[in-house]
Recover the amino acids of this structure.
């Protein structure tokens, strides 16, 4: 067992305990004013693995926690296991469509916004069907990354992340 090291600062040069307490209180007040870091959990549902990877990378670099899947069924399973604040879904998925997934998410997770990535123009049938199913927004593919990021900024982020 080692003995704790004694201070090399002479006693007359050490701050008084009251000074230390004031410094500590000031530091606590400063930390209390720092806003909490908010992290958004994003679920990317895209059957094209390259696009899914690019979207996940873009969103992760900007401070989001991202999980991806290539099917609507996989998305529903992930939503049972992982906190999701936003779902980004392709309209044409194998099996269940993106519109049907939007309908189920709107029913089972009404506070989770769904954004549909549509292969058609914004006024297309898929976009209208998605809005009727509960999607809060649609974006036409191909889209610029900046356009998607601007759209996602309009949605609130998740709960404060505890350090």
């Amino acid at each position: 067992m080692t003995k704790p090291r004694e201070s090399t600062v002479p006693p007359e040069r050490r701050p008084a305990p009251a000074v230390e307490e004031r410094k500590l209180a000031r530091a606590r007040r400063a930390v209390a004013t720092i806003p909490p870091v908010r992290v958004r959990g994003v679920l990317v549902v895209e059957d094209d693995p390259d696009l899914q990877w690019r979207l996940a990378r873009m969103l992760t670099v900007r401070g989001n926690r991202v999980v991806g899947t290539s099917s609507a069924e996989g998305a529903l399973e992930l939503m049972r296991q992982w906190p999701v604040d936003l779902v980004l879904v392709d309209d044409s998925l194998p099996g269940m469509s993106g519109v049907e997934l939007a309908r189920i998410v709107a029913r089972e997770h009404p506070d989770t916004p769904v954004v549909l990535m549509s292969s058609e123009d914004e006024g297309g049938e898929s976009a209208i069907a998605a809005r009727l199913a509960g999607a809060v927004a649609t974006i036409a593919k191909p889209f610029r990354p900046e356009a998607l990021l601007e759209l996602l900024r309009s949605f609130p982020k998740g709960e404060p992340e505890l350090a």
